[in-house]
Amino acid sequence: MASLVRAWPAAAGALLLFAAFPPLNLSFLVFVALAPWFASLKSTTRRGALKSGYVFGFIYILCQMSWLQPLVWRWTHDAMLSWVPFFVAPLIGGFYFVLCAWLIRHCWARNWPWMIPFA
User: Fold this and answer.
1) Model confidence over 37-88: pLDDT tens digits?
2) Residue 59: per-residue pLDDT
3) Is 14 helix (H, G, I), strand (E, B) or coil?
4) Which residues, 6+ apart, have CB-to-CB distance to 78 below 8 Å?
């Protein structure tokens, strides 16, 4: 239960960022979508930042790859095969955000918030 409490800022940030782009197209959310995740990285441990980054990346890429399953279904007409890339893409793509979260936490730890956009 405690891990769910620590994961909500990353999940909320990923879902808000997804909502800022089409198909939902709530573009005003782009200015605040990452704020909960970035704020949670300020007070987390190194290991917690890595976990938070993976949660963020997995959820965000899972939402972004919603087009992949129907595409593979139409291409192969195999239900099991169409779900494989839909779940493999976020498993692999989440690692990009692990590095991003580690860099952002490092910026907070050194009191360099101005470096976060470069991370």
Assistant:
1) 999 999 999 999 999 999 999 999 999 998 999 999 999 998 888 899 989 9
2) 95
3) helix
4) none
Give me the residue label for tokens 């590095």.
Answer: 99
Instruction: Provide the whole-model pTM.
Output: 0.88
Longest dimension (CA), the chain: 53
pLDDT in tens, 80-98: 888 999 899 999 999 999 9
- The rounded distance, in Å, linking the Cα atoms of 116 and 109 is 11
Give the per-residue pLDDT at 79.
86
The Cα 55–Cα 48 span in angstroms is 10
Alpha carbons 116 and 18: distance in angstroms, whole number: 20
Residue 39: partners with Cβ closer than 8 Å, 6 or more residues away = 9
